[in-house]
Amino acid sequence: MRLSQLIGQRLHEAPRDAQTASHVFLMRGGFVRPLSTGIYSLLPLGRRVTARVEQIIREEMDRIRGQEILMPLVQPQELWEESGRAQAIGPELLRFRDRNDKPMVLAMTHEEAVVHLVRSDVTSYRQLPFMVYQIQIKYRDEARPRAGLIRVREFTMKDAYSFHADTESLDEFYLRVHEAYERIFRRVGLRECVSIESDTGMIGGSMSHEFMALAECGEDVIFMSPDGRYKANRDVAVSGVAFRKTEPRTLEKVHTPGRKTIEEVADFLGITPAETGKAVFYATPDGRLVFAMVRGDFEINETKLCNLLRTPELTFANDEQIRAVGAEPGYASPIGLDSTQITVVVDRSVAESSNLVVGANEPDYHQKNFNFERDLPAGATVADIATVRPGDPCPVTGEPLIMKHGIEVGNIFKLGTKYSEAMNCRFLDRNGRSRPMIMGCYGIGVGRTMAAVVEQAHDDFGPVWPMSIAPFHAHLIAINPGKGSVGEEAEKLYTELRETGVEVLYDDRGEKAGAAFFDADLIGCPIRLIVSPRTVKAGQVELKLRNGSRRDVLPRGDIVAEVRSIVEAELARLTP
RNA sequence: CGGGGCGUAGCGCAGCCUGGUUAGCGCGACUGCUUUGGGAGCAGUAGGUCGCGAGUUCGAAUCUCGCCGCCCCGACCA
Predict the structure, then answer these.
(1) In sequence order, what are the residues at sequence separation of 6 or more whose Cβ sits closer than 8 angstroms to the Cβ of residue A544?
(2) β-bridge partners, A318
(3) How many angstroms separate the CA of A13 from the C1' of B10?
(4) Is A448 exposed, middle or buried (0-12, 13-18, 19+ CB in 10 A)?
(5) Is the CB of A483 within 7 Å of strand B?
(6) 3-state secondary structure at position A160
(7) What is the pLDDT along chain A (576 residues), one digit of tens a residue?
(8) A187: region left, alpha or beta (phi > 0 left; psi from -120 to 50 alpha)
(9) Burial class of residue A349 (count of CB atoms within 10 Å of its CB; 0-12, 13-18, 19+)
């Protein structure tokens, strides 16, 4: 490709909207352009990168016997009513009507479509197991897109679905997909990418892992032990904090005028937040009230609480609801609540501590010396509902947990029979008995992976692409091409490189050297070749690696072979 | 959906408070000449519904009201 012909202007300055490194450089380098909030076009450079990412994914899916298919983006809403998700999913699912007034949706994932496809085609255990996948656009009407390509509304995703006769088969295949994902993320050049156990969320199922590319701008929070043996999403992470009980003292009411928050109460009484109990009232969508309590120095993890209560969401209860069960907002106590009207959940940190300060269910009063076993003898659930804090001991190694941010580039789920049962996707087993198929599903965000790579591999001047997904292997610059035979020499080299299979971006514009170098940095190809009056005269070509590891002047006759060998070595290095 | 910010040329911005000719600047683009190893110089050119719509006024980029769009924080999120 000739740079003079390439569509996608490089920008000297980043658009004001661009905040993260990947957003800035993908914009400045001419890889992507925004069309609307969270909706982007890919320019030729960006498309070349995503095409390479897709090809790597394709190869690894094929390696585990995946069969590529393509399912529709536009789907009738009735299909989503079959699975129950038309009701379960909120405005994130974009609904509209076609010209015949038929309710339609834009698919945000393809469980329904793939089940629809498979249930009429696969009927026997002899056909199981198998996996189909596609690389296709999804649309999610995100409440708030952010960080450029990290969180968007329209995006390309590889989604794969496996179908099994029994859970052993799914378990076995799940591990194979896990391995395939490790290969994929290694091959695309993500340096720090960990798989962590995660919450299954709205997609359901029994087990799931998220593949997290570690990056400061990531939205997800991960807790890891220093040796990496333990790693988990914040929503499932547990800490190994040890609590200590002491001799229970007598309950005692204390006057705490106007002190509602943990900090105010602890300050006023001259104690630490760890000596208090934090109470929060929630309401579930079906109208249940929940009283949740953690020790004052912890935070409640709503995801853990939701999972415990088997509810899709929790909202804060209002003062009216709180007073209706005999509690006082800001001074709430679990003591004396009517357990027929409210579910009481107490974190381990409360159950295993002694003599905490809690509310008195009376304005301006708290109670000292709350002891769970003595003061709440029945009707309360004890569970882990607290969010882990950085520095808490690891439950496995005991070392202080490290908190990291990550970009979720992929995930894998054991779905089980959630969709096959709801949508009647069944097969006949060996004994002629009809049974629902057991499913797994596996996603990778293509654009997000590209952005994650840039987050992990860039310098002040632009991205430093791994060879495997770089838009071109090499960036050839002719400096002063009008002088002597420089232009012809560069053209010859351009042709020779392409003939040996090297993908080359050729800067034939004749810009000043400085300008050409800045553009090359901004585009970020791994190998830079320079042909100039100086090198032509010496019968040489300059070679520089974008990552800064090498800068050489080589004989003209050696350069093509050398470039080829660098490309091959780099690709080999990235292949497990 | 709550809070905040911003919409003026492809990109970055000034002008707005205090209304007043043909709306500026830098970068980028185009033409020519000179340049050519880390964003060159000179000369010239093109490029604007000042987000949209009402209103106030002799006169609106500027003041008022409404709407739209975009970004950030939060809520939310297979």
Answers:
(1) A527, A528, A530, A550, A551, A552
(2) none
(3) 12
(4) buried
(5) yes
(6) strand
(7) 999 989 988 998 888 888 899 999 999 999 999 888 899 999 999 999 999 999 999 999 999 999 999 999 999 999 999 998 988 888 889 999 888 889 999 999 999 999 999 999 999 999 999 999 999 999 999 888 888 899 999 999 999 999 999 999 999 999 999 999 999 999 999 988 888 877 655 455 578 889 999 998 888 888 888 888 888 888 788 888 888 888 878 888 888 777 777 777 777 877 887 788 888 877 777 777 777 888 888 888 877 877 777 776 777 777 777 777 777 777 777 777 776 777 778 888 877 777 777 777 777 878 878 777 777 766 777 778 888 888 888 888 888 888 889 999 999 999 999 999 999 999 999 999 999 999 999 999 999 999 999 999 999 999 999 999 999 999 999 999 988 899 999 999 999 999 999 999 999 999 999 999 999 999 999 999 999 999 999 999 999 999 999 999 999 999 999 999 999 999 999 999
(8) alpha
(9) buried
Contact criterion met (CB below 8 Å) for A555 and A504: no
Could you tell me the sign of the dihedral formed by the alpha carbons of A253, A254, A255, A261, in that order? negative
| Helices A44-63, A446-456: inter-axial angle, 10-degree rounding | 110
Interface predicted TM-score (ipTM) of this complex, two decimals:
0.90
Which residues, 6 or more positions from A415, have their beta carbon under 8 angstroms from its beta carbon?
A111, A203, A204, A205, A438, A439, A440, A441
DSSP secondary structure letter of residue A81: H
By C-alpha distance, which of A324, A337, A283, A327 is closest to A306? A283
Domains of chain A: 16-236+403-455 (3.30.930.10), 252-383 (3.90.960.10), 472-574 (3.40.50.800)
Q: Which nucleotide is nearest to A522 (CA to C1')?
A: B39
For strand B, give the nucleotides within 7 A of a protein CB: 1-2, 6, 10-13, 26-28, 35-40, 69-78
Query: Strands A154-164 and A193-197: what pairing?
Result: unpaired
Amino acid of residue A256: T
* Tokens found for residue A135: 């690389």
- Chain A window 350-409: residues with CB closer than 7 Å to nucleic chain B are none
Token couple for A409: 């580039």
Per the CB < 8 A criterion, the answer to whether A27 and A149 are in contact is no
**Does at least one atom of strand B sit less than 7 Å from the CB of A134?**
no
Does the nearest atom of strand B lie within 7 Å of A219's Cβ? yes
CA A166 – CA A168 distance, rounded (Å): 6
A21 three-state secondary structure: helix
Cis-peptide into A129, omega within 30 deg: yes
Beta-strand runs (E) in A192-331: 193-197, 207-214, 220-224, 231-233, 252-255, 277-283, 289-295, 315-316
A512 class by beta-carbon count within 10 Å (0-12 exposed, 13-18 middle, 19+ buried): exposed
Q: Using DSSP bridges, classify how beta strands A365-370 and A103-106 pair: parallel, antiparallel or unpaired.
A: unpaired
Q: How far apart are CA A371 and CA A357, in angstroms?
A: 9
